[in-house]
Amino acid sequence: MRRPCGIERAFLARSPHARTTDTEPRALASGPGKGAGAHAGVAGVPMGSAIATLVEARKRDLGGFTVRRVLPAFPHRTVGPFIFFDHMGPVRFEAGNGVDVRPHPHIGLATVTYLFIGSLLHRDSLGVVQTIRPGDVNWMTAGRGVVHSERTPPDARAVPHALHGIQTWIALPQSFEESEPSFHHHPGATLPVVRRDGATLHVIAGHAFDVYSPVRVYGDTLYVAIELKSEASIVLPAEHAERAVYLVDGLAHIDGTALHPGTLAVLAPGETAVLRALEPCRAMLLGGAHVDGERHIWWNFVSSRRERIEQAKQDWAQDRFAKVPGEVERIPLPDAH
After folding, report:
1. pLDDT at position 16, please?
2. Which residue of 58, 267, 273, 317 has the lowest C-beta tally within 10 Å?
């Protein structure tokens, strides 16, 4: 049996978070936000800041390919419906090399892929074959169960190429956890873009800045890719119950608190914040309504019920999930600890 390599190790590293583990990102600083007692004595976050918590990404070196993970984290397992957040790359591959994530299963979640550079070829057990490129959105609803693979497309693999992007998971509401799986691709040209002084805002999913994305969501959702020129700023309204800002590259600050790449700033509920670029930068704004109850994660499975995850483990181990047409490999079930 072939051992996992490259980006596959990121999938195998996902573990239960019913309790915090040493592999989870942890808060650098936290506090209640503006108002009484805001951040008194909390290092790195000044009094009156809209930041409730700063989370430092845990880097994973995958043999020349770096993944930075900020969700799930302690003390924030979710931000809105977002239960998982990985920053892939940037990485450059030589000709003949690339990403090869063999078929693997999901339940109870939706995967959302968004790229800045490069391309990925998605195949799944629904028969979908779809290449995603920068600015596009791939939204796959796993529901009761789906299997997919992600690989570098043959044309990209034939030459030196780069990859840089974000992969997130959305925890489906309990009423949709066992829904039929589905896949939707949205070309970048179909997504709304808001332009303000020095700021370009790509609304990936949900609603923000008075526009709505055509991507189907399952509840109040906020997901925006932000590009700021040096010294540009953008006001982040408090219209969503939970919000966070992840700095992808460049330097910026929120209400005087400096952010560097790989930092997730979880914002205090009900507080308006201002994101200002100290140099050209990119950031992701995410959040929405809080998930409707506790969620458990094990490997690639998410559910409100532990017994459902146990069933998914057995189904994958006994090869009862649907197959991905054109694929003959699969990632084996990790050892349960």
Report:
1. 35
2. 317
